[in-house]
Amino acid sequence: MCLINTMSIIKCPECRGQVSTMAGTCPNCGTNISGNLRQCPKCGSYCLTTQDKCPECGAELEAVQQPQEEMQETQEKAVKQNPKPHKSKGPAIIATVIALILLCVGYYFFDQHRMQQREQVDYERLEGVTNPEFYQQFLIDYPDSKHFKEIEERMQVLQAEADDWKQLLKNINRSSISSFMQKHPGSLRGRACEDMIDSIDWQDALAIGNEEAITDYLKRHPSGRYVGDAAEKKNALLLSKVTAEEKAMIRGTLESFFSKAIANQDIETAKAAIPDTMINFCGKQNADAEAIIEYAKEKMAKDVIGLHYAIGQKMDVRKETLPNGNTGFAVEVNLQETISRSDTYQPSSNIYHVNALINQEHKIVRMNISK
Fold first, then answer.
1. Taking CA atoms, which of 11, 39, 48, 135 is between 20 and 30 Å from 196?
2. CATH for 244-370, options being 3.40.30.10, 3.10.450.50, 2.40.128.100, 3.40.640.10
């Protein structure tokens, strides 16, 4: 099938609009026309060389091999005859530049706002901080901060305070703590100073150990760290407090023991004064009444005609737990011993320290007698 080279008006094989056979492209649909037509062998309608069926009757068409150079020339010609409209890129570029500028400006303000928020957070975090190094770091991070002068002044004050604090920690006592608090009245370390004084007062109260010392601690530190311990200690002291009646009972027990069992070597009194045996009597373990009388007889030299004992007026008594778990009385008292001799001009006298443990039945559980 030959290509059409004569000019005539035909229907466009694509859009069926009117077009010249010599036109470069169809003015209606833009299809290449010139050099790209052939006739259907069945109905004579014009078809494109690239079509394999007649658009008019549908007859099968043989493929046409167009020379490469001719095809290229036809395409170039068609482009020249119908050049594509050139679109200007100027407005798009301007719009892109404006968008970039707006983006940069927006990011700048966003970044500034974020920096201000972070600065405010870091500023608020310094509340309660005593280490001047954190203030120094803030000044480095935010040299243009509106808080710069304030932070710098606080840093200088805290640096001086930190130096005094180091000196205090080298020698902690009530005087050094008080001096620090007077020098730095608004210090954030004030609480730590109060805690240290609290501990010192509690240790002093424990060292004294009596009810008055514990009560004094509670008055000084009603909300102190050791209030609970102090209350327990005070209750324990109250429970261990010895009444006047109990002290009188203890004095009577000791006076009977020394004036009868020891002075008169009375074994019945010795038996009545102790349980079956003493835990310890003057170094002798599990001492019975016979051991007590033997101790008394050793004092009776040939010229001794009598022993006389007087319990000291000052007697320290406290309650103490006995080996069997019951409560007893620990006693410390001085004992004056007067020895009568056959030679009335040669009396002698000794002062002893008696340490004894007495149970609730008025029995002497343990006793040591020393000069």
1. 135
2. 3.10.450.50
